[in-house]
Design a protein that fits this description.
Blueprint (H helix, E strand, L loop, with lengths): L1 E2 L5 H11 L14 E6 L2 E6 L5 E3 L6 H9 L6 H6 L9 E3 L6 H8 L4 E5 L2 H15 L5 H4 L2 E5 L2 H4 L12 E4 L15 H10 L6 H10 L3 E7 L12 E4 L3 E7 L9
Parallel strand pairs: 1-2, 5-6, 5-8, 6-7, 8-9
Antiparallel strand pairs: 2-3, 3-4, 9-11, 10-11
Bound molecules: S-adenosylmethionine.
The site of S-adenosylmethionine (SAM) has 21 residues, from helix 4, strand 6 and helix 7.
Length: about 260
């Protein structure tokens, strides 16, 4: 990580400690490839020296803010797949959080979300985006519903001791090398993200873990034409333009009766 502001040195040290990253001098930017940079705009991934910030988590502006305002609210397929209604906001574990876009959509629709991310650079970018959003008057309340956990869902997804502690829904959106989730139009930032993360080759194993943990259902986001995760037939599917949601139902999604 390259810290580009004298003022942010202690924050850079803290990030390095939290995410196991190495702080390097700005000369390092001359090297080809992607660099994680910290400046007054926050933490971002940039390609080469003087390149543009290509990957940054920003919940307050850009596409995320646009989707929050004009994305269709509870009419969105993700909301239907997870089972959100006006009266009921299921608790969710997003076991493959990535840059947190789906996590944020679910939180903006009222769900409490525990987000798991195992890739340290991705987790650092997400944590930094959440930290900046906390102070925002419009989205601070939304990100307060999100808790980020750094680690693998292969370890973090464990069946809860009591029903009350179970998440209602486990949500999975693993990365696939040959995934058709809009691959023709994958934008530059997503190409950088893909290079960083690679394919999640162990994703099939997550499905049974998720089913063991969720109280009501597991939702898997897939490329529209991709095979189901672990080749396991879902209870039903919601088809979108480039992606689809496979829903594995366990019980009717409804509030726990005390
Ligand atoms: C396709 S991205 C998720 C994108 C995310 N849904 C979004 O809206 O930004 C998949 C992410 O899941 C993470 N991941 C995959 N398997 C994981 C696991 N077992 N535990 C934690 N994170 C995992 C990857 O590191 C990657 O960042």
């Amino acid at each position: 990580m390259v810290c580009l502001s004298e003022r942010l040195q202690s924050q850079a040290l803290e990030y390095a400690r939290l995410w196991g990253l190495q702080n390097v001098d700005a000369d390092w930017l001359e090297q080809p490839g992607f660099h994680l940079c910290l400046d007054d705009s926050g933490l971002y991934l940039q390609e080469g020296a003087g390149g543009k910030a290509q990957v940054q988590v920003d919940f307050c502006a850009g596409a995320t803010a646009h989707r929050r305002q004009f994305g269709g609210g509870m009419g969105q397929d993700i909301a239907k797949a997870v089972g959100i209604t006006g009266a009921y906001k299921p608790s969710v574990i997003d076991a493959t959080a990535g840059l947190g876009r789906d996590t944020f959509v679910l939180a903006s629709l009222g769900c409490r979300v525990d987000a798991h991310e195992r890739q340290p650079v991705v987790a650092a970018l997400l944590a930094d985006g959440l930290r900046r959003a906390e102070a925002d008057p419009e989205v601070g309340e939304i990100v307060a519903r999100i808790r980020l956990h750094f680690g693998s869902s292969h370890d973090l997804l464990v069946p809860a001791a009591t029903i009350a502690e179970q998440p209602d829904v486990v949500y999975l959106d693993p990365m696939f090398g040959d995934d058709a989730k809009g691959s023709a139009q994958v934008k530059k930032d997503m190409q950088a993200f893909r290079q960083l993360v690679g394919a999640d080759m162990d994703a099939d194993d997550l499905l049974q873990r998720a089913l063991d943990c969720a109280r009501c259902r597991v939702v898997v986001k897939r490329g529209r034409k991709a095979a189901p995760l672990a080749n396991r037939k879902p209870s039903y599917q919601l088809l979108g333009k480039s992606s689809r949601f496979d829903v594995y139902s366990k019980a009717k999604v409804e509030a726990l009766v005390e």
